[in-house]
Specification:
Radius of gyration: 18 Å
GO molecular function: DNA binding
CATH topology of the largest domain: 434 Repressor (Amino-terminal Domain)
Number of domains: 2
Low-confidence stretches: none
Number of strands: 0
CATH class of the largest domain: Mainly Alpha
InterPro entries: Lambda_DNA-bd_dom_sf (IPR010982)
Distance between the termini: 22 Å
CATH architecture of the largest domain: Orthogonal Bundle
Length: about 100
């Protein structure tokens, strides 16, 4: 999973018609940033990944999860952020017991 976010970014870079240098500059990063991302094992900071993702029109979910979140998904996550831990545990137990369906 560690490398999946990097693979998704590189795929978006390669699909972009601009040069690596142009993408790096447009994202406000060092001119060699994209080249280093593609050719080294260095892991950039989250802030730099987010700047690059924004320049490539990728959402945070696309980069880190590999799919978009629906408005219902976003709402559920916002609710989960504020409910007490006991309610989270109860909800998780109920979800784990429910039969899974493919969307």
């Amino acid at each position: 999973m560690h490398e999946n976010w990097k693979k998704r970014l590189i795929e978006a870079i390669e699909a972009d018609s601009r040069s690596d240098r142009a993408i790096s500059k447009a994202a406000g990063l060092g001119v060699n940033f994209v080249n280093e991302l593609k050719n080294t094992d260095k892991d950039p900071s989250v802030n730099k990944v987010l700047r690059l993702a924004k320049e490539l029109n990728l959402s945070v979910a696309q980069v880190f999860l590999g799919f978009e979140l629906s408005s219902d998904d976003e709402y559920l996550l916002s609710v989960l952020r504020v409910i007490p831990n006991e309610q989270k545990k109860a909800l998780l137990t109920a979800l784990q017991a429910a039969p899974r369906q493919n969307p």
